[in-house]
Design brief:
By secondary structure, this protein is mainly alpha-helical. It contains four helices and no strands. It folds into two domains: 60 residues, Orthogonal Bundle (Arc Repressor Mutant, subunit A), CATH 1.10.10; 40 residues.
Amino acid sequence: MKERRHISPEQKMIVLRELFEGNSTISQLAEKYQIHPNDIFNWKKRLFESAPEIFSRKPGIKNDTAAETKIKNLEEKLKKRDEAISFLVQETISLKKSTGGDN
């Protein structure tokens, strides 16, 4: 039984780039890189299925809703904490003024 070979995303893109440039057929690429032709078909299919998502997002920003939600929650926590600190500082100042403290 053959051992499964892991092919990196970068390697997959190299194969697909060659395919799309029209320099080679799928069977030629499969032979050249020792990959099953069905793998290349599947990579091509996955690439085109994810293309709308790739082109819909802004450059440099990932559509990671879990991370976005976590960031929003942390920002809200920081905002509440800042409000609490501001309130306590104001209370301290007003208490010092009412007791006649200079410091």
